[in-house]
Please model this.
Amino acid sequence: MMGRMSTTPSLPPLLWLFALCNFVLGTGAFGMTGYLGPLAEDLGVSVGAAGQTMTAYALANALLAPWVMVATGRWPRRRVMLLALGLFGAGTVISAAAPHLGVLLFGRVLMGVGAVFTPVAAGVTMALVPPQQRGQALSRTFLGMSLSYVLGVPFGAWLGLAFGWQWPLWAVALSAGAMLVLVHRWVPRHAGTPGAGFQGLGRLLRQREIGLTLLLTLLYFSAIFTVSAYMGPVQLALNPLSPTALTASLTVLGLAGVCGTLLGGWAADRHGPRPTLRWQIGVMAMALALAPFTAGQHLLTLLAFGAMSVCGFGMMTPQQSRLAESAFDQAPMLLSLNASMVYIGTAAGAALGGAAIPWLGFERLSWIGAGFAALGALTLLPRWRTLAPPPRHTP
Model:
């Protein structure tokens, strides 16, 4: 009996290094949301204008990262990772030393290009594990991104509010340098999948399931970042908070994101990606719609945005699994395109949120996000599932 029992192989330890790198990238990418106020004041611009640093980062990743994937398609994956971390670190240094918004935006563009590390690491991750473990493996790799909300973003908010907005960026730059050294030392030269290419991509994108998967990523990240790009000011508009209380609130939201990442990977492996996604997008839409009504009730505000974080981070793994199931051989490019949708959605959400601040105020920005989440839910309706005529049942 014992001889017939099979054990599930453990996940490769290398995934923890990928998680750590994603932690640094996530802290650098999203940490500014906690100290936009002092940044805007020091540079002499509005908070809405300062929020466009997220737009610059997002658009750079969305528009340039796929071309970096193709240009480095013949390179070993480790070399691409080192290039990505180098660009990210250089962009962070430029951002920290920026004397005005224009230089800061240029630095954020370099950081956005460097974030190509994430889809490259995801492609390597899926090549290292069997199909039945992809959900859990991806959730471990992306755990660093959600942990950046627990530790990186709140710490950056405290550091930026207490000592100046440049200090969190200098910390990220040093951390990126350390990650570059670790990746060079620990990642095998030829680890992972072959490089991405455009061959056959047009045919793939004409497949309805792939198109709808990418569209859902675009819509739900737009939903999240209409409010997350301004989370510090939003929290303060709904409830008067001290810097310490604001840091604690951001930490709670980060913990919710960690839980969502782990739950999303588990649910995708156990119940399948689509059922998991239907629950997540539905809960997200409700939470965003109800958030403005929690003004003056701090715990309810945390509950609403915590639900958004659980669902938002939890949807990453099911979405990646859907793309891998659709075309595993083209997974690196599809994951890069999915990352592009992430950052186009991030840019669209940040831009629309900034434009809506004079009309809705910080406290009601989440209503725009609720609309995007509702549109995302439509992509998961059963009628969109049919990709081909149903199979015939023969006796």
